[in-house]
Amino acid sequence: MLSVFIWIPLLAALLIGFWPELTAKQSRQIAFIFVGGLFVWSIILARLFNPDIPDLQMSEFIPWIEPLGLNYYLGLDGLSLPLIILNGLLTSIAIWSTETNISRHRLYYILILLIASGIAGTFLAQNLLLFLLFYEVELIPLYLLIAIWGGKRRGYAATKFLIYTAVSGILILASFLGIVFLTSASNFDLETLGSGSLGIAALPMTTQLILLTGIVIGFGIKIPLVPFHTWLPDAHVEASTPISVLLAGVLLKLGTYGLLRFGVGLFPDAWNIVSPWMAGWAVVSVLYGACCAISQTDMKKMVAYSSIAHMGYILLAFAAATPLSLLGSIVQMVSHGLISGLLFLLVGVVYKKSGSRDLNVLCGLLNPERGLPLIGSLMILAVMASSGIPGLVGFISEFIVFRGSIEVFPVQTLLCMVGTGLTSVYFLIMINRVFFGRLSDWVVNLPQVQWRDRIPAIALAIIITILGIQPSLMVNLTESTTTALVNVSATVAEASPTSNLKY
Fold first, then answer.
1. CB 388 within 8 A of CB 395
2. Dihedral sign, CA of 95, 99, 101, 103?
3. Can you give the pLDDT at residue 408?
4. How many CB atoms lie within 10 A of CB 181?
């Protein structure tokens, strides 16, 4: 049941690669049908999923390379299910939003399908080495998608992404190898390492901190957190719109998911020690990202820096590590994926129709006759969601994070709340300059926005509104798993001889 998410995209990639005389339109249709089918399958699994059971469900286990401790071990729980659904949705939207006449269409769709397969495998893998293999699968495809179909500085942006992500993988691999070697575990299965995690908890605290540092920095590069963030704005600006949707909406979640699963989950003792530092790091990322966003004149770069700020909220939730804050972190991952996907889609439409993303050039696009009134209206909704306006999914995700964190880190939480105010500032600057006022002479006679461009944006706007009004659709899937994660970690921490701290 779970292997479908990995092997069906690969089957579609083979079909596109070897089908004779395939047009760009046909390649797009094949990719969309297969990925759209996976999105529907993820919704079906959500219906079959029992949210009251915190343990893995629908597990698949096949021994693979036993001398290396590598097993094909997949499982679904409340941490991975919402992200699997998000991956299917945003990948479908990315394919739908791609130009029908794109060059080298076979390669383009094959790369997107490889990324979809790798991301799904990352969220489902229950073996550390298998996780890392899937984690690295998306590296080269995304590099090529930016380097081939990107903007003027695509080579620089793609190379920078490649170097940063490669370093991330090396640090994570080193930590994973250290965990298995020092605990004398028989394999890399998370179940083996986590069922006592007493092997990890029994290690000297200095050793635990060293291993955790590799995991934190490795996933911190991917999230990204300041000061490892510099690859992200360049990658977003140079990537095409569909790739920006995937990058912000799904790929960044590999970092947050990995840090939660392998940092918070496997190192409760060490995490207790570093959590105040993590909370401080979250504050720096939130405020720095927000301040950088205020100073931008490129719409896409502003949205990119807003992603850095919003990822800081997730780190704050991890630092607090309460059942409510961890629940909020998953909701924030999904919320950010939906909102950032919508923002990048709308910025892409503005650029496609006006030829510019410059706040000093664009003006009056909300003009009902000659502007982009529907796109402007959707953009207002998107920035309201990102700013945490009640009734939209951004509000409920940030509220749960702050409510779950404020009792543990009151000062840091209040400082992060300042970031929500700054979000309103920089997005109001963008809305005021680009959509209000007199229509700029630079952008008169704009082409009409086709329904092909409208449908994915409207779909995301509807989902953002529905989840804002009825968040239980998402919360119920995750609550038991995050609560169990805290409880299990607390048990391990209390049993550990290296610490008397309570988790």
1. yes
2. negative
3. 92
4. 9
Q: Tell me the C-alpha to C-alpha distance, in Å, between residue 263 and each of 127, 193, 274, 297, 485.
A: 15, 13, 11, 37, 12
Is the pTM of the predicted complex or chain greater than 0.85?
yes
Amino acid at 467: L
CA angle, corner 441, sides to 440 and 444, nearest 5?
A: 90
CB 262 within 8 A of CB 128: yes
| Residue showing tokens 């990102």 | 386
User: pLDDT digit string (tens) for 318-333?
Assistant: 999 999 999 999 999 9
| Predicted pLDDT of residue 419 | 92
CA distance 494 to 496: 6
Rg for the chain, CA atoms, rounded: 22
Residues in the chain: 503
Return the closest-CA partner of residue 486 out of 333, 310, 279, 330. 330
- Neighbour-count burial of 185, counting CB atoms closer than 10 A to its CB (0-12 exposed, 13-18 middle, 19+ buried): middle
Cα distances from 44 to residues 30, 38, 53, 262, 429, in angstroms, run: 21, 10, 17, 28, 41
CA dist 53 and 479 (Å) reads 10
Write out the DSSP string of 336-386.
HHHHHHHHHHHHHHHHHHHS--BTTT---TT-TTTS-HHHHHHHHHHHHHH
The span from the CA of 233 to the CA of 13, in Å, is 29
pLDDT band at 198 (very low <50, low <70, confident <90, very high): low
Q: What is the pLDDT of residues 1-54, one digit of tens each?
A: 899 999 999 999 999 999 888 888 999 999 999 999 999 999 999 999 999 888
CB 98 within 8 A of CB 242: yes
pLDDT of residue 256: 95
Tokens encoding 285: 């990322």
For residue 25, the tally of other CB atoms under 10 A from its CB is 11
Nearest one of 303, 255, 260, 273 to 485, comparing CA atoms: 260
Cα 34 from Cα 13, distance rounded (Å): 10
- Look-up of token digits 């049941």: 1
**DSSP code for 298:** B
Would you tell me how many other CB atoms lie within 10 Å of the CB of residue 428? Answer: 12
User: In three state form, how does the secondary structure of 429-481 look?
Assistant: HHHHHHCCCCCCHHHCCCCCCCHHHHHHHHHHHHHHHHHHHCCHHHHHHHHHH
Residues near 215 by beta carbon (within 8 Å), at least 6 away in sequence: 171, 172, 175, 258, 259, 262, 263, 267
Nearest to 282 by CA among 259, 311, 312: 312
Give Cβ neighbours of residue 175 (< 8 Å, ≥ 6 apart): 211, 212, 214, 215, 218
Q: What backbone phi and psi angles, to 5 degrees, belong to 70? A: -100, 120
Coil, helix or strand at residue 80 = coil
Helix, coil or strand: residue 59: strand
DSSP character for 67?
A: G
